[in-house]
Amino acid sequence: MKKQDAFFEKFLPKSLKSLIDPGSGKRNYKLLRAILAVTMLAISIGPVLIVAGLGYRNYGDLVLKAEDQQLEWQLDGKVKSIKHMVKNLRSVVQFTARRDRYTELIEGDSLENLFLRLKQQYPFFADLGVIDETGIQQAYVGPYELQGANYQEEKWFGEVSDRGVYISEVYTGYRQVPHFAIAVSNYDPKTRQVWTLRATIDASTLQQFVNTIKTNASDDLFLINNQGVLQTSSAYYGDTLSQFSAPSFYGIQHDISLEGEYIFRAILQIEDTPWALVLIKKRFIHQADWKNFQDKLSLIVMACIVLSVLVICLLVSLLTGLISKVDDLQIAMLKEAEHTDKLASIGRLAAGVGHEINNPLAIIDQKTGLIDDLLQMSGEFEHKAMINNSVKVINQSVERCKIITHRLLGFARRTDIASEWLRINTIVSEVLQFLDNALLYSRIKVDLQLQDDLPRIMSDRMQLQQIFLNIINNAIDAIGKDGVINIITHKIAGDIRVVIQDDGPGIPEEVLPHIFEPFYTTKETGKGTGLGLSITYGLIKRLGGDITVRSHVGTGTAFTITLPIHNEAQNDRRQ
Amino acid sequence: MIDDNDKIKVLIADDEVEFASTLATRLNLRNFSTTVVNSGQQTLSAVAKEQPDIVLLDLKMPDLDGLEVLAMLREEHPELKVIIITGHGSFEMGREGMELGASDYIMKPVDLNLLIEKISDICLGSKKDS
Predict the structure, then answer these.
(1) Is there a contact between B18 and A363 if contact means CB atoms under 8 Å apart?
(2) Residue B22: its chain A contacts at CB < 8 A?
(3) What is the pLDDT of residues A491-501, one digit of tens each?
(4) Using a CB-CB distance cutoff of 8 angstroms, which residues of chain B are in contact with residue A367?
(5) What pTM does this model have?
(6) Are A188 and A102 spatial neighbours (Cβ–Cβ below 8 Å)?
(7) Fold classification of A419-574 (topology level)
(8) pLDDT at A366 over 90
């Protein structure tokens, strides 16, 4: 715990001790506010950001996976379509090259008729040729003079002889027009030789077909051969027969950058053909959904942050406000404690001084008394009158000193308090009886508003008498001549309150804070010791009570004494 | 003239010698018979020897505490009148003394007239013929 405390101490404002030191000033509330705010923000916004980040990533992965799958399905479908088309073309050529048709096809116009019929149904056929076992073209229908051409050395001729069927890549050939060929070989039982039917098909057929199966699901769709040469045109890579990269990989590739955008690229080989299908798709098929998700996520995160900031600012300002208030209260309490302590120290000092002076004063008093006695007894002599006068002045001075020492000794009251059940109203009346003459002499009227059914209080009679005596005496002094003193008693909660109010000149604002300080007096020298209210304050505090003062120059002064019905402070002391 | 026997016998017990002797002189001038002692022990023996009418007892003496002396005096001489003299300037010590059986108390510096008044009041009850 201590380690933690030390750790937090580093961040938290200076300890209370430094607050007592007037030089160090108050806590650094700005720093406290900043630390609290940053900590709370980190705690509240951190998890939101983490969750949002995780959500963003996972949803992204999910979208990517879904896109992958969709792309795979698409590609699969397209590849199947192309295969189907190629199969159809091959079937047509295979049907045309029925094995016993060799003789029929190389004679007369029959190949031409067949070609015309075929062309009616399949306009993309460019030419037809019948080739014998040795590779010599025996019959030909088409735009070129290829009758008798020898294909013996051609690679495709070897392949068709071996496998029975051959589909070529797209090439330009003699015509300089992209086309491809399908060749089918068959054994003619009549001539007992293997012959070949070769049909050339316009490459635009492939292009048209690819165009028809191209949907919005793909941004580019084209065929390539094994060397990566485009077999149909591509939106990104150019026209037919342009060079694309040779496929090193079949399947779906992610994160390829194309013209500054990330794309998916899928390449799939089409069986029994020299082609591979390439599908290019910009990433995020569900771009709208993805955007929507991003928008919503950022909205939620922003809302969380804004809300957190608002709530935290409010909380932090409330908290620091509270701490500041508590600090102020504590400082005030410490100051009051310090003040009380100061009073107690002064009290002890004063009592000590008072006692030490009181004894010699008693001797001076007796000696002057004796001189006076002797003077009375002796007859006239020189300077007798002067000595007599001096003795009188000494006596007056001793009297003044006596008042001071008695008040100083008042501080030395023993802490024991005699407790008994007392009626405040009775004590007020008793004190007023003491002061009857003074009140009469000063023509001061006392207006009593004493609550009849006040509960009795457990307190000290003598001390209460002295308290009231001091305050009423002060009121008499303040009024001087002709005035009114109001004395009000009433019960408030567990306390009894006595208000003693005079209509004297009032206490100036600058004097008011000092009136309970010892030796503070505004009376002319010799008239007041400045101890009366200070002693009164100490007595009231010792009885567990409190005294406050309100005063306005010109209207008068009111002292409010609050006394507890049960004095707990006193009970504690007794225990 | 008042006979010596009719005078009120006052025992002044105070460790402040000058105070006690001067007070004694002044009381003598006013027709009191006085004896001065300066400690608790002396007080106890002087009371036994002099049989005073009244004792002026200081509460602060070097050997014995004034209240202890008072308690002992009250025990041995229940009829003896005692006035407490206190240098503490408060009623409390006096009141405590009164609780222990003292007749009255007076604070230093002592107002002689007030003291004589108190002595007379207390002693008149037992010496009506003065």
Answers:
(1) yes
(2) 363, 366-367, 369-370
(3) 988 899 999 99
(4) 18, 22
(5) 0.44
(6) yes
(7) Heat Shock Protein 90 (3.30.565)
(8) yes
